[in-house]
Each structure stands twice: as C-alpha cells, then as structure tokens.
Amino acid sequence: MRKQSYHYSSFFTFIFVFQFCLGSLFAQATTDLRTQTNINDNWLYLENNTPNLNDAQKAANWTGINLPHSWNSEDATDLNPGYRRDASWYQKQLNIAQIDPNQRYFLYFEGANVTTKVYVNGKEAGGHIGGYIGFTIDITNFIKEGNNAVFVRVDNSYDIEIIPSQKSDFFIYGGITRDVWLVSKYKNNIDNLKITTPQVSAKKASLQIIASTVNPENAKDLSLTVILNNPKGKKVAGKTVSVSGKTTHITFENIKNPELWDTQKPNLYTVTAVLSEKNKAKDSINEKVGFRWFEFKDHGPFYLNGKRLLLRGTHRHEEQAGVGAAMSNAQHRADMESIKKMGANFVRLAHYPQDPEVYKACDELGLLVWDELPWCRGGIGDELWKTNTRNMLAEIINQNYNHPSIIIWSLGNEMNWLPDFPDGDNTEKTNAFLTELNTIAHKMGPNRKTAIRKYYEGSQIVDVFSPSIWSGWYSGSYKSYQKAIDVYKKEYKHFIHAEYGGDSHVGRHSENPVTGENIIKAEGWEEAIVQTKVANIAQIGDWSENYIVDLFDWHLHISENDPTFVGNVQWAFKDFATPLRPEDDIPYMNQKGLTDRNGTPKDAYYVFKSYWSDEPFTYIESHTWTERQGPENTPRVLSVFSNCEKVTLYHEGKSLGEKQRNIASYPACGLTWDVTFKKGENALIAIGKNKDGKTVSDTLKVNYRFTKNESAVSLQLSSEKLKNGNYLVTAIAIDNNNLRCLDYEESVYFQCLKGGKTMKSQGTPTGSESIRMANGKASIEVIPDGLNIPIEMTVLN
C-alpha cells in the first residue's frame, strides 16, 4: 500500500516566549498569554522499527537520551558500508500540572527526519511527512492533568516519494534532530504573522502585516494591536484594529529614515502583535523585521539597498562530528559566527532548510541566505511525490517568511541527475513541475527571488541560475575561471556561481603542487624538469592543503577584481559526511570544507578571511606544514595571508622585507617571500600593519632538512597527553634512515587493544580509525578508561 500524503503547517512563527506590559491595554494581561517550554531533556529511545504502539510500549530496552538526537550520529561515519535507514521510537512523560479549558496545547517539533507519527496517551495525535522543517501537533484533546505519555515514531527509511533523493551526496540522518517545545495559548489566538516591506528607501519605508487568527467560537470582541519598535526598542508606529475574519491586514506607511538592514549593520526592528478579547490581552507574537531592498542587475552585479554588494558566500550542511545532524543551538550558532568572522556575507543552506537558530543567526549577524527546497537529484516523481514536494515548499516559505536575511527561495539542485522514477529525467515533465513550483514560490513569497543550480534545461524558468563551474577540480584548470564566468554572465540574465573548490586533507602539503595551468612540476631534487598535465585533479591531484589554497586564492583574485560579477559561493564551509565517498582520505567524508567536521579552520579558511574580513590578522602558510625538505640553498616561496595594508616577514630574526598588500596581485595579494631555509629549526614571524597603524603578528617554526627520504619501511607510534585528559596517538611513516617519509599517503588503521577507546567515527583528522596519511603522519585521539591500565595501541597499513 502506498503512503498517503498529509501536511501540517506551523501555527506560529516565533522563537521566544514573550511576556510584556505595554501601556494600559496590557496592564490586565493574564496567564492566558502563550507559553513555550523546551522539553528536550529526559526522553527515552527505542531502536525498534515496530509500527505498533503497543509493542513499543511493552519493550524493555529503552535508553535515556536528551534531544536533539539521531541514531545515525556515528554509524553514518563508521567504517561499515551503509547506515541505518529504519524507524525508531521516542518516549517522554510530559507533566501538565493544570489544564485550562480555554487554552490549546501543542507540541512543536523543529524537525524530525523523515516521517513522524505522534501518540499521546495511547492515541495518534498527528504526524508529518518530510524532514528538515518544523511541524505542530495539537494535543489538546489527548492530554490530561498530571503525567502524559508521549510516544513518537520517526522513520528515515528509504522512501522514493519524499525528497531529498537518497542518491544525494549527503546522509539523511534519522531521529528527532532538533528542539521540541510544549506550547500553550488561548483558544482565540494569532496563528501567524506575515510581514513584508513593500516600499523601502533610505528616507522612508512601509510595513505590511497579515495576521492570521484562530477564533473557533466566533468571538465578536477581538482586537489586534501591533507595535513597531526600532532596533533600540523605541516605538515608531502602532495601531489597533478590530478582528472580524481569519486574516487581518495592518499597514504602517511613511516610516521615516528607517535604520536599514544590511550585511554590515543588520538592524532589526521588532513587531509585537497582541490579540485582545474585551480589551484583555490573550495572545502575543514577537517578530523581528529588517528594512532592506535588493536587486540582481541584468547580466551584472547584485545590489543591496541601492549599493553594489559583491556576494561573498559559502555553503553550510547541518552536521557536526559526533552528533551528525542533531546539533545543539550553540553548535549551529558557532558555525554561523565562524562564517561571518571569515568575512562572508552570503550563505547557501545546502541542500535543505535548516534549524531555526541558523536563520535567527543570519538575521542578527548580517548573512544573506539562499534557502533551498531539498529537491536534490532523483528527477521528477509521480503525483504523490509532487504533492509531498509542493507541501514542503509551502512549509518552508510559511515558516521562514519573515527573515530579512533570506533573498532566494531555491527550488532545487541537480534535480534531473540519477532519476528515481521511470522517465524521471524527462525534461518536459520536469520543467512543467518546476514552473509550478516557481509560481507557488512567487505567489506565497513574492518578496524573494527563485533559483536553481545545475539544471540547465530549467535555467530560464527561475529568476537566478547557477551553472556548474568546478575549474581546477572536476574539470579544467583554475586559471580558466575568468573565461568561464564571462561566458555565463552573458548567457544568463541573473547569474550567480554556487559551488566551487576541492578536497583537502589536513596536514598534507606539496613543495610543488599542481599549477593553475594543471601542470605537476618536479619537486626540485631531479636534474631534469618533468612537467605532467593533469586532466581531473579530483581523481589525480594530491588533495594537498596548499593546492586548494592556490585554487581559492585565484578564484577570489578573479571575483574581487571583477566589477560586474554578482559573486560566488564556495563549496562547502565544513567537511561533511556522505555515503557516496567511502574511498576518500577520511572514509565517507566530503573533505571540501574550509574547516574540518569539528569546525577547526584549515589553511583555506584564512585565504577567504584575507580577502573578506575586516579584523586585522596575519597567517603564515602553513601551521600544519612544519616538517619540510628540499635541496640545500633552494629558496621556497612562502605566502602570508593577511588583510593588513603592509606585512613584514622575518626569518631567524632577519627581515626579508616589508611588502604592500595589493589585491590585484596573485598569489596572496603579493605577500610572498623567497625563503632559503637553513637545516633544522627555522623561526618565522609575520607582522602586519593596517592603515590605522595597528599591528598583528603570526609565528611559525619549520623544521627543514636537506636529505630526501627513501621509501617507507615501518610505522612509528608516539603519544602526548591533551588538556582534556585524553591522549593523541600519532603514527609516523619512516624509512631505513629513520626519516619521516613526507611523500607517504597510504591509509593506516588505528586500534586500541586495551586501556581505553579511540575517538572513532567522527569524520575528523584525529577521529577516524582509518585515515590516509598526510605527509607521512596520522593521528587519533584516545580516551583512557580510567582504570589505570596502560593503553595499548596498534596501527596497521
């Protein structure tokens, strides 16, 4: 039997509980005002796929957990092929001390993947189809005073009818992966607010509010008061109107000299809506709004608030080492703050809507957002598939409608790849449905643009299009980038470049990485210079950090110096897990991140920061490249990435000269020096000075040798104790002369035999039992078991 599609819209759009007293109207406010209580703690979890509630209730092997939670938090990145795609149960005892007959009670799930059924006190209360988006369950008619048994069945089994396709290049984590809230509000309440800014300029703006209200008993004495406060909390407008139907329209005209929302000053106004009955406040919603306008110029750049803004972007997948998609709000926030600290002003949420904390952070930090429907690969589906996809798009727009950070509703990515259905790559059918989605998006959210990526046949349907350009990785050389974007700027009316970059393995470096012309040069030891052309660097390249540094440096060199370019969006900010890449240097990891899966920056992060960030810094390339070799008296080009106006490099206390940073120069904006290393330890200091005279510095010690290692013959283990009490166990490949083999890149396998356990299945440079060596070195973190037993480790290759 095929599944039926069903759809639950979120009934509220607020994030915080709002209690207030606003003038005499609210002096009589009672406990009728809505409450929202986080109920993440003290759940039970049952890894059992039974569809029968009675069987789940009788099971004895429930375990205690807190939310968010995913049963794929580590099995997605372990060394066993595949990951659990099945159903599990969650249980919570929900204590409600007193039930008010005039209140309605709800459970709000910010996200559960992929399909969910909710039972309260033995009865099915509701459910939801599709992950990555919030949904509400009305539990009013199922609860009682005292303890209430809540059971939730979540299923991430393969389901052809629900996007995203399992052929996508990321894991579909199962579980209640986001926060859950208990909400109560008066029977007559505000369902949601939709806020638009129809007219915005530097001199004046207008604000339009559509309030949907619930009034089951058709009460006649309802009124709605809306107050607009500026970013400092001062009231700038207010209005009270009577409520007669399901929707109420309120407009504020001629808001003078609005404090505009932009990426540098993300000014947020507050809209407070209060529903009153007989002049008593019964319900309230508190929303943030930003005044801004934007435009994609035809065949040209992007404008925000009337000024050209180069979109400096990255992509973000929702996952973290050790927890998968079940991230805390603090972890979500840390990702977005790191993106902003790098200097980005744009983020594409790939390839699905993300946690509410992410949008909140983007609003507050000043990050423009590309919000994406998870139609990722799989082609066009049947009627049930279409219904579920339409419903998800509607949910995304309804829930994220008010965020000033969002400028794009993306309708899909690589949609016609690897069809799941017969004839699923039919262009005519795909375009017909894409046109339907485009119409829905413009009707429901007319204040944004629509976009897709890498479905060329539909490029003229949406407002903004991104072709696929992977210069220097999947095709061509990175120095062909300007030619590629010049072609596409002419071809597509509103062109943006989403996705570029390549994989890099932390700690792997090459003295002579592949050049921008796709040539591998000799390292300098050989008498004859050999040059070899590389066709596909993704397959043949060395995955070194310094190749990716050069690639990104070139892309930014082009984009930052092109006055007619919209901007580009690097793929991806953080390493993320994928079932499609078991052979990667860290198995099952897409290693294209600017940070590792824990959020620790790689070298490439500092390249972006040097172009984009205003915070003065210097970074010597590279802090993960402290063991090097080369012929004696052979200078090495050393780059310093910095946003300072001038930088001086010191080698062994001697100045190698001050250089002026020039954005038109490549590499490193001209901040390069020839360094002739001495044998042994070399001390390097880079001191940068900005235009205000402030100085910043970076130091690095490099151990250099003049003897080239021979072939590796053995692995050597060592350990050091970390500040957290764990141990870092390191394997070094050595030759017959006991030299570290800096060219050794084979996989090694760590195993703890006794005394502790490895930090495995983390997908990080020190959190995988199987990992390819980086310049002859690999490490793993080991947790002692606390029994004072000596830790015994083995490493194999």
From TrEMBL:
Residue ranges occupied by any Glycosyl hydrolases family 2 sugar binding domain in the UniProt entry: 63-184
Signal peptide residues on this chain, from the entry's feature table: 1-29
BP term (GO), one: carbohydrate metabolic process
Protein's UniProt keywords contain Acetylation: no
Domain Glycoside hydrolase family 2 immunoglobulin-like beta-sandwich residue range list: 190-292
Domain DUF4982: 638-696
GO molecular function: hydrolase activity, hydrolyzing O-glycosyl compounds
Gene3D superfamilies on file: Galactose-binding domain-like (2.60.120.260), Glycosidases (3.20.20.80), Immunoglobulins (2.60.40.10)
Keywords: Glycosidase, Hydrolase, Signal
Residue ranges occupied by any Glycoside hydrolase family 2 catalytic domain in the UniProt entry: 298-512
Keyword Signal: yes
Family: Belongs to the glycosyl hydrolase 2 family.
UniProt-recorded name of the protein: Beta-galactosidase
UniProt organism field: Flavobacterium circumlabens
